[in-house]
Amino acid sequence: MEEYYIFSLLFDILLTVLCYGVTWARWDEAQGTEIVGLIVMAVAGTLMVAITICGMIRYTKGKNNIASVLTMKLTLFFMSFGVMLYTKDKVVNADASKFIFLLGVACLFICLTINIIKIMIKKDAAVVRWFRNREKECKSVAHAAEAPKPGRMERYKVEWLWDAACEVYCKNNHITVEELSDEDGDKIYDLAANDVALLVTWVIMHDFFIADDKRMEKWFEEVKNREQTGLFFLASACDYKLSRRDFSEEIIGFIDDYFEHDGVHECGDFSKDYESYVTSVLKKELYTVEFSWEEYDAFKEYIDKAYQAFVSKLLTAR
Fold it and tell me: Structure pTM?
């Protein structure tokens, strides 16, 4: 997929340069409507590059959008090429230019139809998920006696800490919640997720995180090679959420003991370790530290120590 975007971008840049070159060379000789055709051709080349770049950005965020990118580029190509042919002074193929333009309109219609269907599917899926979650909540209330035992990690959401991180962020930046921009909201999510991102990075480094597909395995390798951060993985692959099934059986007992905030901590307490590291070592306030590999290298010693205590406990129990 990455190779497609790279080659496509190079081709689009070459095409754009060609379009501007032809426009520049023909500008003084162009007359009448041909000028419009040259402008359309140059603008179309620029838009081709823009569509590819947007597709690359969305792909890095986990969106597999090659089909929509191709459809948009075909739409732009056919419509602009049809207009360019039609605006030539000596039109000998008016019907052909109209046909090509109509192909572009057809591609546009297909693109809009596909996106409308996607939106409808997402809405339907959201409704289905709501009913399923509501059903689970009702069952949970009805069968409270069958609830998981305390100290067992089931799920974790960064949004649970967003309010606390938001309060610190607003205080330090002298703004109110109402003044927060979307960029501020994303920054707060990252600050609230920093502690868990360190733990997730450690889990990935030790091959204890379960991959759902080959793309996730690729992300694992990027984190291990430090090409991407654990925070990027937590945001892009996990949507700032964790569940019990994300961890292998080898490590879930350690996660239950070390990470579960409401349980009994026999081998260590993750939240206390992180708070001690931030306030005592870094001399900073909670929810003000951004992820860095230097920070991970320092904090992983806390996790290593707790894990060694957990392994020793298992060996003693045997």
Answer: 0.54
